[in-house]
């Protein structure tokens, strides 16, 4: 692999042991994927933040880098942590876990990584423009960056994203190259999507992403050109990105009339059709758990936007929540919600803000039996990681369940 003089200096230790370790990771990765050079990145989104996933070995690795003087050279933001840094006690998180999580964040902070723990960095300033090269790790955000924004990123792992932050480089292969961004299958969606009262059919777009993702997995395709979607809000697109990435491993897609590169490439011959019946089958399959047994509700996978929080405040105004109900979002968006008065309305209902974290990366295994959510991704990991049965429903219906009697 060709390296610039600066990159070679990083590799040879001229920038300290932490940067050298980071460059070694990137050169190794580049060799595996046949990259001929590095590309400079303008931002990084780092995963591997929850102590529940990192464990002691991960924490020690981060601390060793921080002590070794490694520092982020570009804007770097963090994926959700294992608990809300301010409100952890109200969410039933132990002191011991909070202490460990704080050490993780302190290590990142020493490395000049911005301590905003969120999977939607594009909602608060980590917002690359079209054609910009970045190195992001969270799969839903990677799909959003590539497809919706037209930025260029591979789906980084935790170590490679951190290495990119510490060097400002990533190996130039995969979606950094134009030749890999063309669609490899046309997907004809023969379905209409009902407008929801708050404007976002997030559960429907999650089910759509799941249906397409599962079909792509079977066909071995990775970059769909999805026809038949007339419009989609930011919230619907983030739900779609999360689901396509979860169920199909998709990091890039094209939606004609919506995403910026949809008209840039010749259309592939391979095609498949998706009907309303298939989406409805997923919605049915994901709503079989008993509503009466719901003991946990979670919204914000990916983290909620201000518009979603405003809608939720409208739905919860004057009501009383009778089951554990988490509202997960980023701290910057929560601050806006505070200023707009939405937080007060939501908190008065008894629903709890779970900022900096989410229902998947928090250490909640064994605490809840049935989780209701509007997120198809949360359904997948809620079961796979935290062993909960799940219900996929529209937000309005979730509020009805949250405020209904438990007996
Ligand atoms: Fe974000 Fe957690 Fe979902 S990281 S996409 S809220 S699983």
Features:
14 helices; binds FE3-S4 cluster
Task: Describe the structure in your own words.
It is a single chain. The chain is α/β, with parallel strands linked by helices and 407 residues long. The chain has 14 helices and 14 strands. The strands form four sheets. The protein has a five-stranded parallel β-sheet, with helices on both faces. The chain has a four-stranded parallel β-sheet with strand order 4-3-2-5. A three-stranded parallel β-sheet has the order 8-7-9. Helix 3 runs parallel beside helix 4 and helix 7 packs across helix 9. It is globular. It starts with a helix and ends with a helix. The mean pLDDT is 96. It binds FE3-S4 cluster (F3S). Residues 79-80, 119, 138, 140, 242, 301-303, 328, 358, 360-361, 377-378, 381 line the site of FE3-S4 cluster.
Kindly summarize this structure in a few lines:
The protein is of the alpha/beta class and 407 residues long. 41% of the residues lie in helices and 15% in strands.
């Amino acid at each position: 692999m060709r390296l610039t003089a600066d990159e070679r200096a990083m590799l040879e230790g001229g920038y300290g042991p932490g940067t050298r370790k980071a460059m070694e990771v990137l050169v190794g990765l580049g060799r595996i994927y046949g990259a001929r050079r590095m590309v400079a990145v303008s931002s990084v989104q780092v995963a591997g933040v929850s102590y529940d996933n990192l464990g002691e070995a991960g924490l020690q690795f981060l601390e060793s880098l921080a002590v070794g003087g490694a520092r982020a050279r570009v804007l770097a933001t963090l994926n959700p942590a294992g608990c809300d840094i301010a409100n952890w006690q109200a969410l039933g998180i132990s002191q011991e876990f909070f202490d460990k999580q704080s050490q993780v964040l302190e290590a990142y902070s020493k490395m000049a990584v911005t301590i905003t723990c969120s999977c939607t960095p594009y909602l608060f300033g980590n917002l690359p423009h079209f054609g910009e090269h970045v190195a992001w790790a969270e799969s839903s955000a990677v799909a959003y960056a590539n497809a919706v924004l037209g930025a260029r990123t591979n789906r980084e792992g935790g170590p490679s994203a951190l290495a990119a932050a510490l060097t400002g480089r990533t190996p130039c292969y995969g979606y950094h190259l134009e030749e890999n961004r063309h669609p490899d299958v046309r997907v004809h969606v023969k379905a209409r999507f009902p407008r929801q009262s708050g404007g976002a059919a997030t559960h429907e777009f999650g089910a759509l992403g799941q249906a397409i993702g599962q079909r792509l997995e079977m066909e071995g395709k990775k970059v769909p050109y999805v026809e038949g979607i007339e419009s989609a809000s930011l919230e619907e697109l983030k739900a779609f990105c999360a689901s396509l990435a979860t169920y199909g491993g998709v990091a890039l897609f094209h939606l004609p009339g919506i995403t910026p590169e949809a008209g840039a490439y010749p259309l592939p011959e391979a095609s498949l059709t998706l009907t309303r019946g298939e989406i409805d089958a997923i919605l049915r399959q994901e709503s079989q758990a008993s509503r009466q047994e719901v003991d946990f509700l979670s919204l914000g996978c990916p983290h909620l936007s201000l518009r979603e929080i405003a809608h939720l405040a409208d739905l919860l105004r004057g009501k009383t929540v009778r089951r554990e109900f988490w509202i997960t979002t980023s701290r910057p968006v929560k601050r806006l919600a505070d200023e707009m008065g939405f937080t007060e309305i939501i908190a008065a209902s008894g629903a709890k803000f779970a900022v900096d974290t989410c229902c998947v990366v928090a250490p909640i295994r064994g605490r809840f039996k049935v989780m209701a959510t509007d997120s198809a991704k949360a359904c997948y990991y809620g079961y796979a990681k935290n062993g909960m049965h799940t219900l996929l429903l529209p937000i309005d219906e979730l509020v009805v369940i949250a405020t209904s009697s438990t007996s």
